[in-house]
Amino acid sequence: MINPEEIRARFPVLDQEVNGHPLIYLDNAATTQKPNTVIKSVTEYYEKDNSNVHRGIHTLSQRASDGYDETREKIRGMLGAKEAEEIIFVRGTTEGINLVANGFLRRILEPGDEILVSQMEHHANIVPWQLVAHPLGAKIKSIPMDENGDLMIEKIEGLINSKTKFISVVHVSNSLGTINPVKEICEIAKKAGVPILIDGAQAVPHMNVDVLDIGCDFYVFSGHKMYGPTGIGAVYGKRERLEEMDPYQGGGDMIRSVTFEETTYNQIPAKLEAGTPNIAGTIGLGKAIDYLKEIGIENIEKYESELLEYATEKIGAIDKLTIIGSAKNKASVVSFTIDGIHSHDIGGWLDEHGIAVRTGHHCTQPAMNCYGINSTARASFSHYNTKEEVDKLVVKLKEMCDWWFN
């Protein structure tokens, strides 16, 4: 079971005041805070093991390489992949999607072809496909969602045709909290013979993910949203898909041999990982996975589900406040608007009282357009948040409304 006091003691950043108030950090969908074990691992790498990987026989290089390679195996285990070689290190979800768009999709896309995404996608799961599609005369089509923020899964088969070359869908919406039935979507894609990528940035910190059970061709995530460092993430890809891909970048470590006339490429994963990687970040990501394993993702999911239910009830009871996104299956996100108050004003007021929330369109403008709004305030919760923090949030929101309207 989750003990919030014990958990919070592991996160140094939470022990501070902001604007004279104890920090209440409710911006976890943007980035999570880091436990001391992750921070320590990054520091220790630079203090003791700083060296490049896979390129030296000296002790520091061996130690750095071991830590780096161990994280790849940890990710394989976390995602339930068959082989560690199916894990490609990238800077995060955004680079992972760009990697697949340029290395896999670009080589098979033709004029008139179509890429299918959903209306609730983060811009990082829209723009990379546009950058590849538009110069080639291909186009993007969207899976609609209903007023609750649930994808209309029944529409997918009707949107797929002989021109559909790829599908990319978010596992958990960052702006609505919707948990999509990705296994069902992957079954539809497989039946149609269409490769599919799942954006797992918001899923991995909150629930068990088994890529073989889901049945996707690619799965991407970011370390910084799961208690790891920034600038590191990974792509899972089925071996046959990764081997089909062209390198996204050229440079060191991704080659087998180089002459001025021709270059032959290394095997995966090296083929898709050019240059010196984020070694410290990768080692830190490994420690973040260790942390999640120690706490237990099932415990985190249960605790956050209870906290979400509590927060939804309390926040939803505030006069003039509307919760945006009421899907049947949600992760720990509550996005909301208050009639007559801009979301930036909400965020500014809360920050004055030490409460950190996110405001804006959350890089999901198509989703905002579905609701006819420009932005929301978003409180996103982690297992280090508490009901007492929710209560303080509610108090400050009510105080703001009283001041604003009276």
TrEMBL record:
<comment type="similarity">
    <text>Belongs to the class-V pyridoxal-phosphate-dependent aminotransferase family. Csd subfamily.</text>
</comment>
<dbReference type="InterPro" id="IPR015424">
    <property type="entry name" value="PyrdxlP-dep_Trfase"/>
</dbReference>
<dbReference type="Pfam" id="PF00266">
    <property type="entry name" value="Aminotran_5"/>
</dbReference>
<dbReference type="InterPro" id="IPR015421">
    <property type="entry name" value="PyrdxlP-dep_Trfase_major"/>
</dbReference>
<protein>
    <recommendedName>
        <fullName>Cysteine desulfurase</fullName>
        <ecNumber>2.8.1.7</ecNumber>
    </recommendedName>
</protein>
<feature type="domain" description="Aminotransferase class V">
    <location>
        <begin position="24"/>
        <end position="393"/>
    </location>
</feature>
<dbReference type="GO" id="GO:0006534">
    <property type="term" value="P:cysteine metabolic process"/>
</dbReference>
<dbReference type="InterPro" id="IPR010970">
    <property type="entry name" value="Cys_dSase_SufS"/>
</dbReference>
<dbReference type="InterPro" id="IPR015422">
    <property type="entry name" value="PyrdxlP-dep_Trfase_small"/>
</dbReference>
<dbReference type="InterPro" id="IPR000192">
    <property type="entry name" value="Aminotrans_V_dom"/>
</dbReference>
<dbReference type="InterPro" id="IPR020578">
    <property type="entry name" value="Aminotrans_V_PyrdxlP_BS"/>
</dbReference>
<dbReference type="InterPro" id="IPR016454">
    <property type="entry name" value="Cysteine_dSase"/>
</dbReference>
<dbReference type="GO" id="GO:0031071">
    <property type="term" value="F:cysteine desulfurase activity"/>
</dbReference>
<comment type="function">
    <text>Catalyzes the removal of elemental sulfur and selenium atoms from L-cysteine, L-cystine, L-selenocysteine, and L-selenocystine to produce L-alanine.</text>
</comment>
<keyword id="KW-0663">Pyridoxal phosphate</keyword>
<keyword id="KW-0808">Transferase</keyword>
<dbReference type="GO" id="GO:0030170">
    <property type="term" value="F:pyridoxal phosphate binding"/>
</dbReference>
